Amino acid sequence: MGDPGPTGPVLDRDEVDRALARLGAEHEAVETSLLALQDHAGRRLLEGAELTGVTRDRWAATEASITLLWTYFDAYSGALRTAREIRARRRWSSREDLVELTELLRGECVTVPGAAAGPGARLSERFSLAALVERMNELYASSLDVVVAADAVWSALPARIDLLAAELQRTRRLAHSVGVRPGEHPAGDDLERITRTLTRLREQVIADPLAYWLPGEGSSAPGGGRPDTTVYDREARALEDVRREIDAVLTVRQDAEQRIVRLRDVLSRADRTLAEARTARGEVLAKIAATEVPPVSGPPTALQEQLAAAAEYRRTAQWNRLSPLLESLEQKAEDELLRARESLTAVTAPLAVRAELRGRLDAYKAKVARHGLAEDPELVEKYEKARRMLWSAPCDLRVAEEAVLRYQRAAAELLGSTRPGA
After folding, report:
1. Residue 252 resides in a domain
2. Which of 37, 92, 284, 394 lies 20 to 30 Å (CA to CA) from residue 116?
3. Among 151, 182, 205, where does a domain finish?
4. Burial track 78-92 (b if 16+ CB lie within 10 A, e otherwise)
5. Helices and strands (DSSP H and E) totals, the chain
6. Residue 31 placed within a domain
7. Is residue 346 exposed (0-12), middle (13-18) or buried (19+ Cβ within 10 Å)?
């Protein structure tokens, strides 16, 4: 350290070099951040949007901050460039150079135009490089906060509003098909109100996104928070309530038919699954020996008869009989489909075991081959024996598994004897 001056002790050459390296890194980081902010999609949208309300006011202030940021950055760049030029004058900086560099690196030597306007505003301000970096970081954080918040709202709410509006249109068409119209049914009036609210909400979100932003509590990070979906959520719940009202109207006219169609589909899938299980059982009996294969039952004729009765109840509008019958049938049909799937799984289990044994045998063969032992006579013999058992029909799984285990044990013993130090 040298003699103290107005900015403290004079820096030596090593201290100057370290300070320049640190300031250079900060310069690069600030430049990267500024360029990223310049290219941010949210900033470009804010520049091109017709803003209103709080967003218009905050964006006007943010634009001024971004302009000031670049002014600060240019001043910072100039000061850093000057410091580097002084340091580059000679390999061993003179006392005068070090004093000048100390003042430049530590003192308030950077003059920038004043940020304020109006009475009492200063035409210029002086900063040290460290204070200037701190000031740029503050401006960057506040600017990024506005850009990220607006972008987050624009990315989230309009798309969700559009999806809800599309659902609203589908609900309106459905409502009209069953006579639920404005002035004739409360649900029709609700649909009109929701339509108006969503249209107004979308316009407001596009023009004033920051009015729909909730900053995160206790978070100082830029963009900390979430879009305010209070109005959207309320209208989504209201639309769901309307949909339930319309469903109640549709129940008599449509629900029975749809449920019967679903029942036919479930029972059809159960029949197809049982047919697949019967075919698989024949394949297992032909390919797998000494295996107990469970029988596969036929289609549930009783359920088909009950389904026919349900269709007749619907045709003759016997809703009091149809409702309990449908509830019972729906549960029985799902149980039947589950039973059919379990039956298919049970009859194909031996094929799965055979496939697992084949895979295990080939995996050990590949492992032996990687160690250069594929031609060992004993292994070749045991492999071929196991392979013949697994790829012949009918296959005795118990005997084949024992053959695979013998091959595995022989391979393991041989591999163990060939390890270094064995």
Report:
1. no
2. 37
3. 151
4. ebbeebeebbeeeee
5. 12, 8
6. yes
7. middle
Q: Which of 214, 168, 216 lies closest to 192, judged by CA?
A: 168
Domain count, the chain: 2
Domain that holds residue 49: 4-151
Domain limit, last residue, from 151, 171, 195:
151
Report the distance separating Cα 20 and Cα 33, nearest Å.
Answer: 20
308 in a domain, yes or no? no
pLDDT, tens digit, 9 for 90 and up, residues 62-120: 998 898 889 888 888 888 888 888 877 877 766 777 777 777 778 777 778 765 544 45
Question: What are 318's two structure tokens?
Answer: 């016997």
**Alpha carbon distance 395, 410 (integer Å):** 22
Task: Tell the residue number behind the tokens 């250079």, with chain if given.
Answer: 24
Q: Which two tokens stand for residue 378?
A: 């004993």
Residue 26 located in a structural domain = yes
Instruction: State the maximum Cα–Cα separation within the chain, in Å, rounded to a whole number.
Output: 109
Tell me which residue of 74, 71, 90, 72 sits closest to 16, measured CA to CA: 90
